[in-house]
Structures are given as structure tokens and as C-alpha cells.
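Duplicate of #3305? Posting structure anyway:
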């Protein structure tokens, strides 16, 4: 039988991972603010959605392999911090949640292993 804490530890990284990818996807709406027509802005919108799609793919991988998902989320956070190293505010807003989700996936994996060993 699982406790409330175990359910929270299982589902929080998954839900937050989808939430972070939706948050990153919101930035793609910038493509429509340049005075272009919808058809002209559509390719820019699709390109700007690629990071969100990448994060959704990481969530999908993390669903079955939480240890790998944790590592991938942390790697995405480090990669973003390396690219945006001059903007600490952007790093905090993007890399912070990515790191949190990665740590939660790793904690979920460690907790699951402990339950399996018991």
C-alpha cells in the first residue's frame, strides 16, 4: 500500500515536468507579436516550440526511467545556464524549475529502489 508521501513523490515530478514544458512553450507565442501574419509567423512559432517538445520527450522517457529523466532534466538546466550565463534572472526562471524536476525524479527513483529492496 502506498502512502500519501509516496504518491506525491511519484506524481509531483511528472506533473511538474509537464508544467515546466508548458511554461517553456508559452515563450513560443512571442512569434506572433512581430506584426507578421499567422502564416508568416507559423514557422517561427514551430521553431520556438522545439524546446518545449524536447522537455515533453524527456518527461516521456522519465516516466519509465526516472533516474535517466532526473539526469536529463539536470543536464537541460546546466545546458541552459551555460547558454544564458550572462542573464542570472533567466537562469533562475528556467534552470531552477528544470533542476527541481530533475531532483524530484531522482528522489522518486531512489525511493522506489528502497521500496523494492525492502
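Output from current build:
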Amino acid at each position: 500500500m502506498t502512502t500519501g508521501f509516496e504518491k506525491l513523490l511519484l506524481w509531483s515530478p511528472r506533473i511538474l515536468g509537464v508544467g515546466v514544458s508548458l511554461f517553456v512553450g508559452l515563450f513560443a507565442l512571442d512569434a506572433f507579436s512581430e506584426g507578421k501574419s499567422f502564416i508568416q509567423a507559423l514557422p517561427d512559432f514551430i521553431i520556438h516550440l522545439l524546446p518545449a517538445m524536447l522537455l515533453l520527450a524527456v518527461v516521456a522517457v522519465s516516466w519509465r526511467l526516472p533516474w535517466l529523466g532526473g539526469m536529463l532534466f539536470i543536464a537541460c538546466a546546466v545546458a541552459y545556464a551555460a547558454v544564458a550565463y550572462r542573464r542570472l534572472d533567466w537562469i533562475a526562471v528556467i534552470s531552477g524549475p528544470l533542476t527541481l524536476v530533475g531532483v524530484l525524479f531522482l528522489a522518486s527513483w531512489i525511493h522506489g529502489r528502497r521500496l523494492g529492496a525492502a
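Confirmed duplicate; merging threads. Residues 4-117 form one domain. The first helix runs from residue 4 to 26.
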